[in-house]
Amino acid sequence: MTNRNQPDISMQAFEACVEMGKLLTSTLDLKEILQVIVLKVSQLIAADNWSLLLKDEETGKLAFDIVVGVDKKLTENIRLSPGEGIAGHVLETGEMKILHDVEQDRNFYRKVDEITGFQTRSVICIPLKTQGRVLGVMEIINVKDIAAFQVQYLPILKVLVDFAAIAIQNSHYCDRVFQMSIRDEYTGLYNARFLYQHLEDLVQNDPDHQKHFAIIFVDIDNFKDIVDSYGHLKGSQVLREVGRTMNENMENRDLLIKYGGDEYVIIFPDVNRNQAITNVERILDSIRKTSYLPEESNPVHLTASFGIAMYPDDAIAPKELLIKADQIMYSVKRSTKNGYGVT
């Protein structure tokens, strides 16, 4: 006979699945989806701590994304490599682990407890996996009744974890599409679409025109001769290599845009005219000294023409700033090339 005072587990599970299905089809906000999933798990499964760790696509390491039961600030700087700790082991193998006593497992990693002041006794760690790829893990620490969990809650936990994996994969797909829309396909640099939006944001966020930044238009001199001599594929390689040269001579806060053809745009934030000139001279000098297509028997040496315009001194509207810098750059190309111009 069913105890009316006990929650109907099957109904709770059904309601959680329905809510997650609705959420997945109504929002692309990954953080919101994952927070709801972890909240549902914490409501269904009695434990001391619930956390969701996501795999960083670049480093391959796990980082705590959602944490319930421990101060999130304590986990912000913790990173787990594949194979490191129980979570890292699950990330590496893609297999769930249920440990009644973590002290009996050689993969147990005490450093997290030392940092957070938490005491881990038992762990349930399940991979967030889709299409054979592990995207992260969910950990439930110190479950009150592991035996009951395995019978009653493990099936619904697997469903909720699958929802989380789907949400993460969808987020990755959306991010890739977005990056494709704002990146140049040959150089990987930001493109003109991104430039226009970025400039609009800069100007809109400075209604009193108190900030200063420089817009630099750059054009590679005699690029057509390079394409005629080496072909279009090698020409694209030169564009990538020139972009690398410029980036290596810029600060992290500076922005390099592949504008189109053999043209680039640089934004130097928080600089005056003299500082912008110094930056351009450094980049131009490096371009002159660099050999491009070094694998060729006859590497390419080239120069470039630069036009410098200042916000808000030369113009305030983004379009006018770009036109100003472009006009100055073409003035250099028509006269000397291999140099820069400034108002």
List the helices and strands and how they pair.
Elements: H1 9-26, H2 30-44, E1 49-55, E2 62-68, H3 72-75, E3 79-80, H4 85-93, E4 97-99, H5 111-116, E5 123-130, E6 133-141, H6 146-182, H7 192-204, E7 213-220, H8 223-230, H9 232-248, E8 255-260, E9 263-269, H10 273-289, E10 304-311, H11 318-335, E11 339-342
Parallel strand pairs: 10-11
Antiparallel strand pairs: 1-2, 1-6, 2-3, 4-5, 5-6, 7-9, 7-10, 8-9
Helix pairs in contact: 1-2, 1-6, 2-6, 8-9
Quick structural overview:
The protein is built from 11 helices and 11 strands. Strands 3-2-1-6-5-4 form a 6-stranded antiparallel beta sheet. The protein has a 5-stranded mixed beta sheet with strand order 8-9-7-10-11, with helices on both faces. A hairpin with a 6-residue loop joins strand 1 and strand 2.
Lateral arrangement of strands in the main beta sheet:
3-2-1-6-5-4
Number of structural units classed as domains: 2
Structural class: alpha+beta
Low-confidence stretches: 1-6
| Beta content | 15-25%
State the shape. Answer: elongated
Mean pLDDT: 87
Give the CATH class of the largest domain: Alpha Beta
Number of strands: 11
- What's the tally of helices? 11
The biggest sheet amounts to:
6 strands, antiparallel
